[in-house]
UniProtKB/TrEMBL annotation:
Residues of the Transposase IS204/IS1001/IS1096/IS1165 DDE domain: 180-294
Classification via Pfam families: DDE_Tnp_ISL3 (PF01610), HTH_Tnp_ISL3 (PF13542), Zn_ribbon_ISL3 (PF14690)
Protein name: Transposase
Domain named Transposase IS204/IS1001/IS1096/IS1165 helix-turn-helix: residues: 100-146
Annotated ranges, domain Transposase IS204/IS1001/IS1096/IS1165 zinc-finger: 43-86
Organism: Limosilactobacillus reuteri MM4-1A
InterPro entries given in the database record: Transpos_ISL3, Transposase_DDE, Transposase_HTH, Transposase_Znf
Length: 296
């Protein structure tokens, strides 16, 4: 197999070759998928005694490789089996199976697909859409995301001067169904995703940071949830609490809408005031300089 075919197939293992001995056409272009017949064999030494192991047949394993011609590609790999028989230098029988550099051990999805999934995570697409695009399951995409945790560990020795955290619905991945996002207000950068929004969990999380880092925080922007205030004063004693303007506007809208409904109920159904407040409620939210007083 020359370098051009390796590049097209996405094969990086130097020992992995097309099985041209057993198949006249090792690359089968079927209507719904492409099957690539490969063979993997190389000298292997016994991990116990260090002697060269004997070849002991093959085992065929099907793995998902990078797609070709917009079709799912199946790598049908004949992996060499090895055996080291019992001897004075190796008291027990040792068996091994040839490994493939492009695929993790005990895995059936190539590393190229997982790397592609990491790149596609930057798009505004759901996990199910990414899974369909890559011909894998939703759980495969979730495992890829979980494995990214090791590359995004927060720095517990530093916090920016101005931070903000807000809750969002995270479903069954959080004990309470709600998680928290921690952000740097100055550059809009996400610092970490906190698993739960419960006060006990938040206290334990922020206590991981050095006290000097917490004392350096000057402002904390949060919503109007009262229990957060006591926790912020405890963890960030030098910080000023700033209410998130979005939640202020949302609360003002709910209060105004509540008053509108009360006035409608006092006026009574089918009255002029009731119909006006019901059908023209958007005018109450329109800025005064945008209202047209000559057209009503």
């Amino acid at each position: 197999m020359n370098n051009s075919i390796r590049t097209i197939l996405g094969v990086k293992d130097p020992y992995l070759k097309l099985d041209e001995k057993n198949f006249d056409n090792p690359i089968e272009d079927q209507p719904n998928q492409i099957i690539v017949h490969l063979i993997q064999t190389y000298p292997m030494h016994c991990p116990r005694c260090g002697q060269l192991m004997c070849k002991n047949g093959y085992k065929t394993v099907n793995c998902l490789g990078p797609e070709l011609h917009f079709k799912p590609t199946i790598w049908s790999i004949k992996k060499q089996k090895y055996i080291c028989k019992a001897s004075p230098s190796c008291p027990e029988v040792i068996t091994k199976l040839a490994a493939v550099r492009d695929i993790n051990y005990h895995d059936h999805i190539s590393l190229a697909i997982k790397q592609r999934a990491m790149m596609l995570l930057t798009k505004n697409e759901s996990q199910s859409d990414l899974a369909k695009e890559l011909n894998v399951s939703d759980w495969t995409i979730r495992r890829v995301i979980t494995n990214l945790d090791q590359f995004f560990k927060p720095n517990y020795h530093w916090l920016p001067r101005h931070i903000a955290f807000d809750d969002f619905k995270s479903g069954r991945f959080a004990p309470s169904g709600m998680s928290m996002i921690l952000m740097n207000i100055e550059n809009k950068q996400t610092l970490d995703i906190i698993l739960s929004r419960k006060n006990s969990y938040l206290r334990d999380y922020f206590l991981r940071y050095d006290r000097s880092a917490r004392l350096a925080v000057q402002t904390v922007t949060v919503d109007l949830y009262t229990p957060y205030r006591h926790l912020i004063h405890e963890l960030f004693p030098h910080a000023i609490i700033i209410a998130d303007h979005f939640h202020i506007v949302a609360q003002a809208y709910r209060a105004l809408n509540k008053i509108r409904i009360q006035v409608m109920n006092r006026a009574g159904a089918a009255t002029h005031e009731w119909r006006a407040l019901k059908h023209f409620w958007k005018l109450l939210l329109t800025p005064a300089n945008e209202l047209k007083y000559n057209n009503y």
